[in-house]
Predict the 3D structure of the following.
Amino acid sequence: MVERKAQGRVPCRESEDPSPMEEFALRPNPDDPRLTRPVAGIDQDGRPVETSVTVERPLTLFLNGREIVTMMTIGDYPEYLAIGYLLNQNMLRPDDRVTAVEYDEDLETVVVRTDRETDFEDKLRKKTLTSGCAQGTVFGDVMESFERIRLSSAARLHTSWLYALTRKINTAPSLYLTAGAIHGCVLCERDRPLVYMEDVGRHNAVDKIAGYMYRHGVDPEDKIFYTTGRLTSEMVIKTVQMRIPILVSRSGFTAWGVELARQAGLTLIGRARGRRFLALAGEERIVFDADPRTAADEDSRHRRKGAEEDAAE
Amino acid sequence: MVERKAQGRVPCRESEDPSPMEEFALRPNPDDPRLTRPVAGIDQDGRPVETSVTVERPLTLFLNGREIVTMMTIGDYPEYLAIGYLLNQNMLRPDDRVTAVEYDEDLETVVVRTDRETDFEDKLRKKTLTSGCAQGTVFGDVMESFERIRLSSAARLHTSWLYALTRKINTAPSLYLTAGAIHGCVLCERDRPLVYMEDVGRHNAVDKIAGYMYRHGVDPEDKIFYTTGRLTSEMVIKTVQMRIPILVSRSGFTAWGVELARQAGLTLIGRARGRRFLALAGEERIVFDADPRTAADEDSRHRRKGAEEDAAE
């Protein structure tokens, strides 16, 4: 039904295999002309202005020929998004073998094929809406498996790493700095950002990282997950699903997010800006090796544009 | 199946009928102890701190006894949320007569009853995910009716109103200022904010305003809708569904949001901060009656906390 188009304008990165240890192995490409579009309008003085807006495209996901969902995405990594979505919804198990991922840019479809018969139909029936965007969903057995997951107790977060990470992430070129109105998620190890994904939907950015980790066999146990978004129940559930023991955000907390993080033993750090942060769960993984008085506050040039211009979604 | 609990702790506001013309007829109540919860944690120096986080609760919505959806909400206006959700999903038509709304706080359910047989079952089959949170949905015929809606061409937005509105909204007490990680939407008329709703999910805040407008027969044609969130396709679709001709946000745009606003003839204003703003659709409704050089920039005390602390979701 869907043809393979390896030569499509947004190729799947199957053959690419950067070391997961390389700093910014994947990062946003704000110069990619497909991702933003100039739009004309007027400003507060009635003067004509041109600005950049982020483009979103539909992508319909099939698992073994069965239609699962249509997502709106910036469309940069359809393969990672497809696999990550299925993993984070428990429709694909970490030990499943993906035999093919077929992306068709014209049809706006991506098909994931596995050798195991998948049993997602029951899952589609049991769904619960989660917080954050009123209509996010997790399927029934995600919550069941959530309760069984044990996160690494050996993992540590040094505050010196945290300060280095937020500085590197905030100063990296991004679609956010170009067009705003977008979310970012970064997979990190120690003081190094490894994979930085952006998308209009926050959950797409997370799912793309999950897909990347699966495709490249990245060990989650010593990783740190950074997000620009709020620490909602959904964000906590997805981080735990990915077996990453530490979640950091520059944004705030919801009560249910905190509750779930404590249940799962996830280290939950929010409002991480400049030298300040707040830890509301899993504090025992934090090593205070930086003098917070010496960590520079975010200066206005390096401050994430979101802080000034764009409280994303 | 679900009993009426008129004496519940979160009563439905059916009998209340404030004039929709009163400034801040409804506004956030950050002192309501049910809406936030103190949580203990540690700060960047390892010192114990206590902070406030927003509480979210599940609310399962039934229409005439049929289960529609479970939402996560702060739970302050279950009746408005229920009715607004159904209206914005086209499951309830503006001319439908709602015969009862039954909220049960213990069961976490709200039941909306109508005298017309509702035909939402087909709608549940035709759904399209929209932008913003990857898993937002609009049902099939919402897009069909979207194309038929004609917004008021007589409506105007004076820039002097816009500056007054953003100043009043940013300085009003809110859950955002208390606990962060929350979205706000405000129904306005001329330079006056009328109904200010907040919720963890941005769409809940919009739906609560739609429910309020339906219950109080508020005319949408001369109104202005203000949101803290991004101007995504979903936000544009909902504003048009509500027949409000002008949408203003302090956040940025997505390409599809701009496209839909232009199709519908909606006035779309984003990045409205201090004296600055950008209009990308429906510019003809704007009347430039304020000198933007005299409108004060947001000072740090009045600047929405989001700008400093919390790029919500």
